[in-house]
Amino acid sequence: MLTLDLTNAPRWHDLAPGVRVQLRPLTTALMVATRSDPAVEVVPEEAADEERAVAFAKALARRAVLAWEGIGDAEGNPIDPSPEAINALLDVWPIFEAFQLTYVSKGLLLEQEKNVSALSPNGPSAGASAIAKCVRKPARTARRG
Q1: What's the CA gap between 71 and 113, in Å, rounded?
Q2: I need a surface site. Which of 40, 74, 105, 127 has the fewest CB within 10 A?
Q3: Alpha-carbon distance 23 to 61, whole Å?
Q4: What is the pLDDT of residues 52-108, one digit of tens each?
Q5: HSE-up of residue 38 (Cα within 13 Å, Cβ side)
Q6: Count of other CB atoms within 10 angstroms of residue 20
Q7: Helix axes 83-90, 49-64, angle to 10 degrees
Q8: In whole angstroms, what is the distance from residue 33 CA to residue 42 CA?
Q9: Cα–Cα dist 88/118, whole Å
Q10: What beta strand segments (E) does the chain contain?
């Protein structure tokens, strides 16, 4: 079942020990705006999927990050989010991976679900109807002689 969060409130996401970011909800409007971001549009068509993923993640993060904790400059002084700082944050591999897993992938899971097979006739994705009648008595087997 798809659960709708009608509050649309920003949420905190832990990306690493001591590092967390407050992000806008991943909405259709946010995804559409990110797809048309100039930094995403200039990625060449022949670019590798990885290059596209990095450009998209950075563009999405620049739109989604509202605040953060545990992030500072070279001297250890806390800094506020800025486009340059967000890009630098996502250049850190474990942070990029955590951002992809905790934020981006949740939105993309719904996108992928429309490309799968029909629901299973039983189990957690029950949706198909049964076509066989229930058996009332066990079948008798032939005797061997």
Answers
A1: 35
A2: 74
A3: 8
A4: 999 999 999 999 999 999 999 999 999 999 999 999 999 999 999 999 999 988 766
A5: 0
A6: 17
A7: 140
A8: 15
A9: 42
A10: 11-16, 19-23, 65-69
